[in-house]
Design brief:
Rossmann fold; alpha+beta; single chain; 22 strands; 5-stranded antiparallel sheet; globular
Length: 394
């Protein structure tokens, strides 16, 4: 009996010695940056024997990151001839040592058609709101790019050759995100907010390379408040809740849920601002409020199944926009009433109230719109980001 008791004690002590600490057990990945890819239209850009550099701003800092590359709309396998990451300077060029990106220990890889690819963990120290320069070499013809087409950020493209380590002056530039869709950070107790929607969340009409989208403003505020929470922007300009229009506007919200919401690591909150394109592009026969609300309820049910809280934002006023019609305004008012009063969302963010002109509430305040009466300007996006109660993310 004594020998058995002693063995039990040894086993118990061994178990205690090998049990991970609470901090170790709590480590995981959070979505520090995101850009949902869209379907390449006919004649879209291809790359061959070129080096491409892109800059992304991190919503959360850390010492270990990984990148989600994408060939999800590729017609063929995508050759990666190398990639590197560095802290970016104000001009977008690497301002520190370049760190090689590897894939299962190799510096080159092939991404099958239709697939994403996660890199190995990358050891580089960066603070929240730092920017990373991601440089990749594409040795063979890529075919139509799996890109995020409305990045409001510059992508620099080299003349022919591999310039990952040598650096380069751009032969061309574009404002699309090429073959990258996420940056994840390893963190203790990781938590991610997903910003999900259309061009108003994507930041259309904000200043290029300035990070003035409303999710960027929210990230600034969270950092200033000492809240360590990552934000992944999964918006696509032109996107709709229920239907798809042009390929570059992406699959509808319900169709892209699994890729753009369910795949984001440690998502705790989903902020949805979407529906104005369903209404406006519907012309004289837009979807009904009940149809849009049914789409919202699908997003809610599928998110709740994954333990994600869902906050709906009211649709902004848009009178003066090219596709404004009275019938659409009626649908917007009904949808917003449901958001405010139904009790179905886990929380409400009233962007409509923050942005409307009190003297003409079907329009945005003139000083907050970009000129098309649909998209905010930098000042408008700032108002939106500041209208969000940070207590929603406690």
């Amino acid at each position: 009996m004594k020998r058995i008791a002693a063995l039990v004690l040894v086993l118990a002590m061994t178990g205690c010695a090998t049990e991970p600490s609470m901090s170790q057990a709590g480590f995981g990945w959070a979505g520090a940056w995101g850009a949902s890819p869209t379907i390449p239209p006919p004649g879209s850009r291809s790359f061959e024997n070129q080096t491409v550099r892109q800059v992304v701003r991190l919503s959360q800092g850390g010492d270990t990151f990984r990148i989600r590359f994408t060939n999800e709309y590729g017609e063929k396998a995508l050759d990666f001839g190398g990639a590197a990451v560095a802290i970016a300077g104000p001009d977008g060029k690497p301002a520190g040592p370049q760190v090689a990106v590897t894939f299962s220990g190799h510096e080159t890889t092939v991404i099958p058609p239709g697939a994403p690819l996660l890199s190995d963990p990358i050891r580089i120290s960066a603070k929240a709101l730092d920017s990373l320069a991601i440089t990749l070499f594409l040795p063979t013809a890529t075919g139509p790019c799996t890109c995020h087409f409305a990045a409001t950020a510059t992508t620099w493209i080299s003349a022919p050759g591999n310039f990952i380590q040598a650096g380069f002056e751009a032969g061309q530039t574009t404002t699309t995100r090429a073959f990258i869709s996420a940056v994840e950070v390893e963190a203790a107790s990781p938590r991610t907010i997903i910003a999900f929607g259309d061009s108003i969340t994507d930041g259309t009409a904000s200043t290029n390379n300035a990070n003035r989208r409303w999710p960027d403003v929210l990230a600034d505020r969270l950092v200033a408040a000492g809240q360590t929470i990552a934000i992944s922007n999964q918006a696509i300009a032109g996107n709709r809740v229920l239907t798809q229009q042009m390929p570059i506007f992406g699959e509808n919200a319900l169709a892209r849920f699994d890729r753009d919401i369910a795949s984001v690591p440690n998502a705790k909150w989903l902020v949805v601002l979407e529906g104005v394109n369903d209404i406006g592009a519907g012309g004289a026969t837009p979807p009904s409020a009940d149809q849009i609300i049914a789409g919202y309820e699908q997003l809610t049910a599928r998110s709740h199944a994954r333990g994600i809280k869902v906050y709906f934002a009211t649709i902004l006023p848009y009178e003066g926009a090219r596709y404004f019609l009275e019938v659409g305004e009626g649908v917007r008012q009904q949808v917003n009433a449901w958001i405010r009063t139904s009790g179905k969302p886990d929380g409400v963010i009233d962007f409509d109230a923050a942005m409307k002109d009190p003297a003409s509430p079907r329009k945005m305040k003139a000083e907050l719109q970009s000129g098309d009466w649909l998209h905010p300007n930098d000042a408008g996006y700032k108002v939106m980001g500041e209208a969000i109660d940070l207590a929603l993310f406690n």
